């Protein structure tokens, strides 16, 4: 059997990214998985989270500059002009942020890629595109805002966003217990991110530029979902006598 060589695969991958087809491709594959009963076709659960993808460039210190309006802005000290800095757990990262929505089994159904400094709370609506009414939306405290709760109510989606404490306004006991219950479901998206990072090497981008990184993430999502489907087939495969 003749298999395509590395250069052929590379050209095909670049063509998908250039034409913006990687997103459509993983959506088509998800439909095929659902048709073959390897994933839920109409999920009743939507789990939302985001993970950092470091730039393909080197680890350089962030730079600060003043723009023409005398505003202080961040710029990457890197060849990757679309990458931005963010801080997490007291560590600085230069790169992008992958926002994703999974179903209750951890299959990724929607992604959105932004520079790393984009706030989670402002990107909930994007990953909930085309989610049907009645679906329960799970998300961590980073998505807790009045506007997001109003969005869920307006679109008749069930609020599963964890509550966060505010200055001089600690969480009530019922909110703490509610957060614990929501965390039992929400961990699925974190498992999917862990697989992307560990098996498919998504901790660092392979390209410079937002559009290319978005295309790369679309292809990685295909790999993740196919792996989950393959694992499901192994679980239901008959045992040889």
What's the short story on this structure?
The chain is α/β, with parallel strands linked by helices.
Structural features, described:
The chain has about 240 residues and is α/β, with parallel strands linked by helices. It has one domain. Helices cover about 40% and strands about 20% of the residues. It contains six helices and eight strands; from the N terminus they run ααββββββαβαβαα. It comes from Simonsiella muelleri ATCC 29453. GO terms for molecular function: DNA binding; transposase activity. Belongs to the transposase 11 family.
Task: Give the topology, please.
Layout: H1 6-19, H2 22-35, E1 45-54, E2 63-66, E3 72-75, E4 84-88, E5 91-102, E6 108-115, H3 124-127, E7 136-139, H4 146-154, E8 158-161, H5 173-198, H6 210-236
Which regions have little confidence, pLDDT < 50, spanning 5+ residues? Answer: none
Indicate the mean pLDDT.
Answer: 88
Query: What is the terminal separation in angstroms?
Result: 31 Å
User: Counting H and I runs of at least 4 residues, what is the number of helices?
Assistant: 6
* Number of DSSP E strands: 8
């Amino acid at each position: 059997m003749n298999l395509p060589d590395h250069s052929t695969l590379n050209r095909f991958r670049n063509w998908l990214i250039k034409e913006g087809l990687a997103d459509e491709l993983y959506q088509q594959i998800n439909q095929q998985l659902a048709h073959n009963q390897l994933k839920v076709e109409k999920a009743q659960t939507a789990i939302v989270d985001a993970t950092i993808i470091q730039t393909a460039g080197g680890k350089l210190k962030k730079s600060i500059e003043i723009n023409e309006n005398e505003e202080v802005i961040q710029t990457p000290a890197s060849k990757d002009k679309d990458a931005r800095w963010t801080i997490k757990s007291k560590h600085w990262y230069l790169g992008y942020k992958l926002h994703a929505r999974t179903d209750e089994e951890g299959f990724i159904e929607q992604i959105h890629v932004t520079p790393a400094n984009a706030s989670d709370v402002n990107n909930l609506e994007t990953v909930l595109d085309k989610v049907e009414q009645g679906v329960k939306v799970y998300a961590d405290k980073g998505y807790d805002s009045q506007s997001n709760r109003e969005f869920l109510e307006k679109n008749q989606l069930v609020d599963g966003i964890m509550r966060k404490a505010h200055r001089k306004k600690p969480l009530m006991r019922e909110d703490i217990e509610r957060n614990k219950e929501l965390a039992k479901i929400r961990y699925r998206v974190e498992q999917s991110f862990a697989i992307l990072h560990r098996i498919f090497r998504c901790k660092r981008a392979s390209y410079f530029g937002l559009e290319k990184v978005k295309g790369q993430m679309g292809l990685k999502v295909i790999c993740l979902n196919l792996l989950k489907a393959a694992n499901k087939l192994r679980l239901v495969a008959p045992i040889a006598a």
